[in-house]
Design brief:
This protein is mostly helical. It has helices at about 5-15, 20-40, 40-50, 55-80, 90-105, 110-125, 125-155, 175-195, 195-215, 220-245, 250-265, 280-290, 295-310, 315-325. The chain contains 14 helices and no strands.
Length: about 325
């Protein structure tokens, strides 16, 4: 069997085996959205949605396009450090394709998996290609975590959160679950690393690639700067929408909305729904009242943000069809 037919058969098997998982995530997304609608006033939510002017929507779309170009540069830079360079135009095309796939398939990572696979096939080094994609995304998550911690600390210190005296120890607090989950993840990684020599060898390779692409000079400042620009572009979309809706009245309100929206971005990492839909809106329902703001404002920002990111990823659909044409 040729490699093309083998890949086609494997793809069909994968899709058939994950069909139930896809349906389950669609169902989970729908259930969470229904729950969100039960916790908000639908008429008020519609009113908040209509407050966002077209100019804010257009600006948000432009920022969404800029995110792809920034992220593609970060991926290209990371891949070059691993010895598997990729032309910038190809990086943009592949990133668009991955972004579109992440929007329409559950989990939000299958597009990145495909991006790594395609680059690995081109470069004849699949492990390095997989590490390039993973490290590029990790760079962004590290910076996002730093932004979240900074914003959350500011909200707590300034007393913006209502009833957050024991935010880090109260079992009902989001921060408690975030810290607990991180601790459990670290323990699981350490356990499985110690249990398998093959995994230990792999992690040794991964550590070397991480050192080369993240912990060396000048890779570290370039990774942090590019990832900071990407995260800033994400938050800029939210802030543009909030400004258009009239939510931003002074620097304090800008800080509050930016801190809350960084938490919305973090919630999208949870791969239980389609492209963060539902999880993001559910987080908004919880977070906005915690600072004394209407939940409908947070949900409106979340819904429009999700719609804009989807629309800005649509060029990836064109690359998908063109890729199929080339394969035929």
């Amino acid at each position: 069997m040729s490699s093309g037919r083998a890949w086609s058969a494997a793809s069909m098997s994968f899709l058939s085996n994950t069909g139930f998982g896809i349906a389950l995530k669609w169902l989970t997304t729908a259930l969470i959205i229904v729950a969100v609608l039960l916790f908000v006033e639908v008429e008020k939510l519609l009113g908040e949605l209509t407050r966002i002017p077209p100019v804010a929507l257009i600006t948000g779309l432009v920022l969404g396009v800029g995110q792809v170009f920034l992220s593609a540069w970060r991926w290209r830079y990371t891949a070059a450090l691993l010895g598997i360079p990729i032309p910038y135009r190809q990086a943009v095309r592949e990133y668009y394709l991955a972004s579109f796939t992440n929007q329409v398939l559950p989990g939000g990572v299958l597009g990145d998996v495909n991006r790594a696979f395609r680059h690995g096939a081109d470069s004849k080094n699949r492990l390095a290609a997989a590490h390039g994609v993973a490290i590029e995304r990790l760079s962004g998550q590290i910076v996002l975590a730093g932004v979240v911690v900074t914003g959350l600390s500011w909200l707590i210190v300034t007393g913006r959160f209502e009833g957050t005296d024991s935010m880090g120890s109260d079992p009902r607090s989001p921060l408690f679950w975030l810290l607990s989950g991180a601790a459990v993840l670290v323990l699981l990684v350490w356990f499985f690393t110690q249990r398998s020599r093959r995994i230990s060898t792999y992690f040794a390779t991964l550590r070397g690639d991480l050192k080369r692409t993240l912990a060396s000079w000048p890779a570290l400042p370039w990774q942090l700067l590019s990832s900071l620009l990407v995260v800033a572009s994400y938050l800029a979309v939210f802030l543009v929408l909030a400004k258009g809706a009239g939510y931003l009245t002074d620097l304090t309100s800008v800080g509050v909305v930016a801190a809350l929206c960084s938490l919305l971005l973090l919630s999208m990492v949870i791969p239980f729904t389609m492209s963060g839909w539902g999880i993001r809106e559910g987080a908004a329902v919880i977070l906005w009242p915690m600072v004394g703001l209407p939940a409908e404002q947070g949900v409106a920002l979340s819904v429009v943000y999700g719609a804009l990111i989807f629309v800005s990823s649509l060029p990836g659909g064109l690359f998908l069809f063109s890729s199929r044409a080339r394969q035929r």
